Amino acid sequence: MRRLLVVFRHLLAILVLPVVMAVIVPRWLLTRYSVIDSRWSPDSALAWPVRGLGGVVLVAGILLFSWCVLLFARVGRGTLAPWDPTQHLVAVGPYRYLRNPMISGVAAVLTGLAMLTGSWVLALWLVTFIAVNSAYFVLVEEPGLERRFGEPYRDYKARVPRWIPRRPSAPEAR
How many domains does one find in the chain? Predict the structure, then answer.
């Protein structure tokens, strides 16, 4: 019963947050703005290579997002939802290189969808999604994580970039 409750908590968080952002809103946008939105022309030479790359980016985003959800469950003992947060700081896997790889995964899904469809409306949604999340992380999430996890989070924050991974530093020469 407990395991079923844990699975339900994760599914609820996934359905309410990333599914709305990466499935429901894009579908609504594509339907709502189809008259003014762009699409790949059937005879476009660029369409198929960009669609192929978009498919790769989409799958990579889904895989990255899924990996992060598993780490939140196994290491963090919580979900991606602000109302059911992790109990432990997650600083392994992709979190060694980025502080927000889960959002990067969702952004990759949105990028892939925009590339697959050739939709400027979805590209605009991607930019909006990144801007809103950037503001949320700076103004709400990071201060909250500092309060919850204290010095370990501050050390982590000093070492790991928010969005763009750093090139690993070379070992010091002796």
Answer: 1
